[in-house]
Description:
Elements: H1 9-17, H2 23-30, H3 35-57, H4 60-83, H5 89-112
Helix pairs in contact: 1-2, 4-5
Amino acid sequence: MIKQVMMGPSKALHHWAVSKMTIGNVLSQTGYSNIQALHAEYAYELAAEEMAREDMMMSPAERQHEADVEEVWEQFSDFLKEMVPPAEYDLEIERLLPLVQMRQQAQRTAAASSFNRRQ
């Protein structure tokens, strides 16, 4: 049985632009119904690749900061949405970061110490 291999958006757009493949042939080889959807997927892939590249370039401290910001948003998103204007989210998140960091440190200390253990 012959298995049809579908082209990805970047390869399909390359064939369309460089090899002068017709739009109908490009769409039939990709499974997309229109060229706009194909281009949107290509743009999404480019953005995802750029984000992955940026993530790889982040230092451990930057990664920890990103994780802390995500945790602030996870814990305080209702408060932020209801009480803080969107333009001030970054400022409020930076204000709440020490609270999350102190809680994390307390949890690490409690996990490492021998609280409630009889010796």
